[in-house]
Amino acid sequence: MNYGLSKKGVRELAYKFAVANGKEYPPKWNEEKIAGKEWMRWFMRRHASDLSIRKPEATSLSRSTSFNKANVDAFFKNLESVHSRYGPIPAQRVWNVDETGLSTVQTPAKIVAPKGVKQIGSCTSGERGNLITMIAAVNAIGNHIPPTLIFPRVFFKERMLFGAPPGTIGAAVSSGWSNDEMFLKFMEHLIKFVKCSKDERVLLILDNHETRLSVEAVERASAAGVVMVTFPPHTSNKLQPLLTVYGPLKGYYNQGVDAWMINNPGRTFDLYCVAEVLGTAFPRAFSTTNIVSGFRKSGLFPLDRGVFCEDDFLGAYVTDREIDLQAATPSSSGLNLQPQNSGTSISETPEASQNSKRL
């Protein structure tokens, strides 16, 4: 449920349990009102097959509570309605798009070092680097299109793409982040490769960030035969197929930057070198196996409502509360009992385009 106990928390709970149930325990526990460290070590040994000390992944409250059964069911209902209206849409025309960041300062890999040395260094190009945004798209049979790279510069220069995957397009934004204009450019790039039309529609699944839902992008997608379906807010960590690709990509990219630093001692790895390293990491990460695995794991293709079990929704149960229907009135509490933003299907009607801007 994303509220696990630390070792100290387990020791405090053990002490309270022992006191409440009249169990025998060392008198020393009473001094600090906590079980001893020796007890903790033996406890972990006794349950070594079931328990281990893990470093948790930081999970925001929004992600923890938004990934619930109601939101996921509404999202899959949207997908089913699109397949029913236009399809079923085959795997080669089911696409997913997402973006990720590539830094000029890599996370160094573990190295072999002598025992007893307290601090070991590994060279990076700087303390804080530049972040280059990459937008990529994959389909359910394991294919992909060349990525789009957005550099944190005012003006784009072609040499920024030296060594990039064939077909990669580039652009420059002072912040380095994607915006309405950049996503519209990527949409044109996508349409050129997927060969969609009103008769051969493409299903594009993406998050509902405001840059994806500009009027221009929605209208261009509609005119080309692209049906856009968005994830519910804060659920892409479970529903996004590209996660099974971007995870390996970061690992291969870091390895590439490490190798570059070793082969170019004394030189700074800057944004003009990113495309070259990406050129070697991209084909390794964007393999058919990784891509197809992402669609299957998220239940997007083959379409599977039951891909997530009750355990996957445990994080949302922590905030579940019984609602007092008498108190839950607009005049008193302002509570809205209707589900909000549970994913959106964007059709080709002007009304739908306006609705998408209100998400």
TrEMBL record:
Domain (DDE-1): residue spans on this chain: 134-265
Signal sequence bounds: none
A Pfam family this chain is assigned to: DDE_1
Sequence segments annotated as region (Disordered): 329-359
InterPro entries: CenT-Element_Derived, DDE_SF_endonuclease_dom
Top-rank lineage group of the source organism: Eukaryota
Protein's UniProt name: DDE-1 domain-containing protein
